Amino acid sequence: MIADPPAASVDMPAVRWPDTPVSRLEVLALIQTLNADLLSHPSATLTLDRWCADHKLANPATVVAERVQGAGKPIPPGVYEALKVSPGTAVNYRAVRLKCGAHVLSEADNWYVPSRLTADMNHALETSDIAFGRAVQALNYSRHTLAATLLWSPLAPGWEHEGLPKGSGVPLAIPRHVLEHRAVLTTPDGTPFSLVVENYTSDILDFPPPKG
């Protein structure tokens, strides 16, 4: 974790959070709250629906998927093992941005086994922008988190000993990606069918800071 990102990686949210000790604590609490919500619910899409509604990011507060057309990535090491299939088994790749209104809340890579989905699910995933979680909701799936990584913290390691930073008097510099989750989705009998890597963006903070 780092206290402040390099200038080249900064992507300010539309709403500027001031660089003050209180704001840094508030931002950290918000990121950790979303992290906890994602860890305790099977669908990232539905969790972001609630986040969007609770923080009035858009009206209607509904998360939609925007497929990244032409996207392609080699199957990284560990995917076949995580999905419990042998090398050579058909594994599809899908990249999407999960958006609430104009806000891109998450950028996700998804490797999934089409033979473990229904024909209708595969058709929807291949021909539409439907979010993966909505497309496969009828599977009554479970989500098993492999890793949840805080990519950035507004507080430097050891702040509890050294005290809160005084603040700079300018907007808080927040990098584009603040949180990453890696998870496997499984059917009720434990069969894995999807490995997803989700990068949550600074747009999750695009709402006014608390007053006072």
TrEMBL record:
This is Uncharacterized protein.
